[in-house]
């Protein structure tokens, strides 16, 4: 057959492919249980800390205040300056290592119980249930036509959401502007543009993320869900459906001998899906959308109790424990494996080192700046003089008095006001002249060291190097 005579393949109809799946609203069902109680407790604890801390007073000022304008960060009795950036670095390293450790031990504990996205989503869902009712009532309300009742309930829910979101933004800004000052500015309509922007921005983010986007943030925006699997292994405690016990699943009455009927413990009720805030079916195995909130465990245990079956069809377990059928008592022994021990040792060493550095941190910091306009000049009695400016920083909150001396050359003499009084949590610039007899000193640059010490507490001292020029 010639090339022209060959039959041609039928034309294929173009297929449209959506690059983004349209969100299906999830109507979560309320659940009670041990893990639900823990979530409630952590929501209350984290919000008590967040909303309450700005109102605490310490030494006559806000206990926790990040004063960006003055470049001073107050955390109870400590005052941190830009020079203390190393402590922020240590805090970030400790937080990252702790996240790795807890994830390697028991999966996404942070996501399920303490992440702000999870916490505020939980609060917003509580408000939604309080106003609109349980999941069935909410579905009927959304499917129904707009009437006065629906308009009132939706308006009330969003009004509470917006009020809570704005209060959250207000509290957030209260960590950077003294919150009592902020209250005065709000009541007098005197908020500055900076405060106004961040209150509205943070409030909008809270309202949008917790009220509207919810699981979308965890599934598509949070990078943690994407790389969490590299921190898991076969001995990581994760929420697991015991397929050996549950399959084959099927509905049945409580009076039926399901084992004779060839059924597993799973009654296929779908409660585990209905209570999941991300809408997944845990029976299909571990999925990146699972945030580890354990709502499915509480829901399944309620069904097991009603059916008279043993709890734990869905439970915290490990891949090895399920496949190799370890007894529950041996799971903990497998959790403490070399990887966990290594994480723990590194975390402990860095934490102890950071706390020790913080405990022994000197409240005195000194910077020496030479007067570059005049390197050296001759003064009375033929002495040579170099001029410096000392930046003396008192990181303590009580005033201190300091004395200044200098060493490095024979016969060096300091000309400055002594002692130097520096108020609490402030920096004092002090002009210092250093003089020397040039008779026995060679021309050139010589290393000198400034010594600044507390007049009342000699243990508080700082040394700073500089150069002395001789012509």
Overview of this structure, please?
The protein is α+β, with helices and mostly antiparallel strands and 471 residues long. The protein folds into two domains: 21-361, no CATH class; 364-470, Immunoglobulins (Immunoglobulin-like). The chain is built from 16 helices and 16 strands. It has helices at residues 34-52, 85-106, 109-113, 116-132, 135-143, 148-173, 179-187, 193-213, 215-221, 224-227, 243-246, 271-274, 295-307, 319-324, 328-335, 338-359, and strands spanning 57-58, 61-62, 64-67, 72-75, 78-80, 238-241, 314-317, 364-370, 377-378, 384-394, 400-407, 413-415, 420-422, 426-436, 444-454, 461-470. The strands form five sheets. Strands 8, 9, 10, 12 and 14 form a five-stranded antiparallel beta sheet that branches. A four-stranded antiparallel beta sheet has the order 13-11-15-16, with no helix packed on it. Strands 3-4-5 form a three-stranded antiparallel beta sheet, with no helix packed on it. A hairpin with a 5-residue loop joins β9 and β10. α4 (116-132) crosses α8 (193-213). It is elongated, with a radius of gyration of 33 Å. The model has no long low-confidence stretch (mean pLDDT 90).
How many strands, what sense, and barrel or not for the largest sheet?
Answer: 5 strands, antiparallel
How many domains would you count in the coordinates? Answer: 2
**What separation lies between the terminal Cα atoms?**
104 Å
- Residue windows where pLDDT falls under 50 for at least 5 positions: none
The strand count comes to: 16
User: Which word captures the global form?
Assistant: elongated
Structural class: alpha+beta
Roughly what percent helix?
40-55%
Mean pLDDT equals: 90
Quote the beta fraction: 15-25%
**Count the helices. How many?**
16
Radius of gyration: 33 Å
